[in-house]
Amino acid sequence: MLKLAPRAARFSILAKPSCPAQPSHPARARQRPLVQGALALLLGLAGSLAGLEAVAADETRDYHYSDAHLHFVDFFQQGDGLGALLDAMDEAQVDHALVTGIGVAKKWQQDAPKKPRYYMGDDAPVYWYSGTDYILAEALTRAPEPVQARFSPFITGFNPTDLNAADEIRQLMAIYPGFWKGIGEVFTRHDDLTRLTEGETPRANHPALMKVYALAAEKGLPVMVHSNITSKREGHEGLYLEEFESAVRDNPETTFIWAHAGTSAELNRRLGRMTWLHGEIERMLETYPNLNIDLSWSVLEPYLLDDEGQPRSRWVALVERFPQRFVLGSDVVGRFGSVGDILASYTPFLDALSPQAARNVARDNFLRWVDLPVK
Fold first, then answer.
1. Which of 9, 70, 109, 183 is most buried, taking the most CB atoms under 10 A from its CB?
2. pTM of the entire structure?
C-alpha cells in the first residue's frame, strides 16, 4: 500500500523563508526561467502525489470475514450467549463463523482455595465433556433459520483416545441430522492442557482418531486438529510433527485444518519464533493437498508480523503460493467482545496480499471448505 508523507511535509519544500529584496543582476535574471520551471515541475509532482493519495484512499480494503475458529463456551462450559455473539459478528463484519464448543471441562476440586477461572488456574484436571456439543446444538437449533445459516457448527465433545469416539460422533449426527458441518477443534498435543487432561495422552495419529478421520471422509466433513508441532523444550525440531503428518498422510480423503499451524502461545513464550516452521508448513502444503492451515491465535505474532508489526515477506509469499489453503479465526473462548479487534489485527498482513488472496484468507476459503456459496 502506498504510504505518503503528511501533506504539510510534502509541500514544505515549496515554502521558502522570507528575505529582503536583492538588487537585480543579469545572471539572476537569466536564472529566473529555470527557477520558475523547477517550481512548476515541483507543483506538478505535488499534484500527482495528491492524486496517488486519493487513489490509495479509494482502494482501502474493507474486509468481511469468516471467523474460522470460534468457541461458543469456555473451559467451564459457560459463555456470553448467542445474542452477544451475533452482535460481535455484526460489528466486526463477520459474515460466517466456524463455531464449536470446548471438548474438555475444568474440574473444581473440593480442596481448591477458590473456583478456578481458567484451565491453568490450578492443578485440578480437565476431563472430556460431551455435553458441550448439546449446549451448542440447542442454542443454534432454537434460533431462526437466517441466524443458523451464519454458522458452521463443529463436533468436539468426544474423547480422542476412546475407540468408541467415531460411533459417538455418528450417533450425535443422527440426533441432529444435517446440522453438523465439521469436527474439531480436536485437542491432542496442547501444552499444559495435555498434562492436565485425565486419562491417556491424546495424539493426532491415535487409532481412535484414525476412525474419526475415516468417518469425516465418509461424511465430507473437515476436521480441525490442535497438534503442537513440538514441545516447549524442543524448539530445534518438530518433536510431534510425525504424529500429525502421519494422520494427514494416511487419510488422503479427509480434509484437515491444522489449528494455529502447529504453534501455541506457550511455545511462543518458551521458544520464541521457530525459524524452521515456515519450511515445514511449506513442505506439508506441497506434499498433502488435503491439508489446510488455520492462522489464528499464536500465528500472527511472531510469524506473520515482525517485531515492528510489518508483514514477513516469506509468509506473504507462502500464502500467495497457496491462496486457498489458509484461514483466519479469532479463537475466542465463550467471550465475544474482542472478536473485532482480533480479526482487525490481521489487516497489515491481509493488506500485503493481493486483493483476491486477502479475500480468500479473510472470508472465502472457509466457505468453500464447508460447501457454502461464495458471493
1. 183
2. 0.84
